[in-house]
Batch of 2 targets.
Target 1
Amino acid sequence: MDNLSNIGVIKDVLERHNFTFSKALGQNFLINPSVCPKIAEMGNAKKGFGVIEIGTGIGVLTNELAKRADKVVAIEIDDRLLPVLEETLAEYDNVKVINADVMKTDLHKIIDEEFKGLDVAVCANLPYYITSPILMMLLEERLPIKSVTVMVQKEAAARLCAPMGTRDMGAVTVAVNYFSTPKILFNVSRGSFMPSPNVDSCVMRFDINEKTPEGVTDEKFFFRVARGAFSQRRKTLANSVSSSMKIDKAYVLEAISKSGLKADVRPEKLSMEELISFSENLLSAVNSKGQQ
Ligand code: SAM
């Protein structure tokens, strides 16, 4: 639908379909006509690319992606939006809408089946209630993608692009720094959404790095350690990891010491190299003592 960025048209579509917003699903739809073209252009929606969109809403961003990319696969959890999307995306034959929870979707399979011969990018105005889990999943799955371009809450952006070893960091910061180069592209005011949220937002792009840091022998274990380390803020690394991963504290302290760190080090003080060294030493301790 050509004029879908017009607020009058959006209201008319929503009213005709008796649509009511679900707060639980993070439904704040974009109504500022300048934002979606910018996300599409800066998010690699172009010839030669297939784009995965997460959370279509009524399809305002999907329209802009479909105009520019070779193909779009859009994943939307709310089946009440399917009849709306049939109307708003009717003119595009390069869009496939999948009614599913993105966290339970096999994105490798979608990329293999739908984007043969194309480069792939992800673009989304993310539901805020699961920003970090979605981002971590997109990165840790090692999908063959070039970039992830997403709208996030402004305060989440600080954590997402925090360098390692700084106060703002969390487990998602580790994943972001491990797999990508993050960049804040532009700010979006709360008035650009319907209903308007209590916070401003910004659009970020994560360019996927060709190489990941060296020294990790078991990536799944490394990210379990990262999650464990940041699961209880304000606790020491030893306490957080031993209680969340249920590993004897003596083994955790041994791994900390072997990595040349102080026994009471806090997770947010660690550099990437230190976290990798700690994770590797912990893995050896756990394997040699048969504990996990
Ligand atoms: N892209 C639209 C826009 O910009 O107007 C909608 C963005 S809205 C912030 C987030 C969308 O994600 C909603 O349509 C919501 O139903 C959908 N959503 C929420 N959780 C989801 C999940 N787990 N998997 C797929 N879609 C989800």
Target 2
Amino acid sequence: MKLLIIEDETALSEMMQGVLREAGFVVETATNCAEALEKIDMYEYDCILLDLMLPDGNGFTILHHLSEQGRASKVIITSAKGSVEDKVKGLDLGADDYLPKPFHLSELLARVRSLLRRGNKGAKEIEVGNVRLNPDDRSAIVAGKPLSLLHKEYHILYYFLTRPERVIDKQALAEAVWGDHADQSDNFNFVYQQVANLKRKLRDAGANIQIQAVYGFGYKLTEK
Ligand code: CA
């Protein structure tokens, strides 16, 4: 699950990043509207944490943009403004929740989890061939038996299963699973290694799907 924190207070943003990364989320950040819009256009986020008062504008413009683009990202407004009007306006514009500042980090984490759980996107079981993923508890079942996966392997499999029969660019996969840091790395050894481990586990478990290499580009998940 990938999150975007839009927050101009560096110290607060860092604390939010800490608790969310520890909980297993891939976290990216933006400190102003322009940067946030750029990232939203380039990447998909499961959940966006949105501060309203930003140095170059108001967070409401980001909500407008998300609804214009028909994006499925869940949004939690985190704001010190706290007026009833702002809350109503934010929810009217498509935000899913409103968390007034100051908040406890444990409350933030609980809200994010609850939102992603009730999100129709996150909670649905994904099934391709004889492989099933349950995003609620991150469990995987292959041919009726539980398959034990490491954290990153689960994320990679989730990424593939939600894009069956499509050519997956290895850069896009790296960014989805590792976040911003993948941008800087021109070395995909991590991706190769994790995908190789995942392929081996799927094969050993008798999965009837396979991850094929697409030469010079990336991968494709197909049913056997
Ligand atoms: Ca602010």
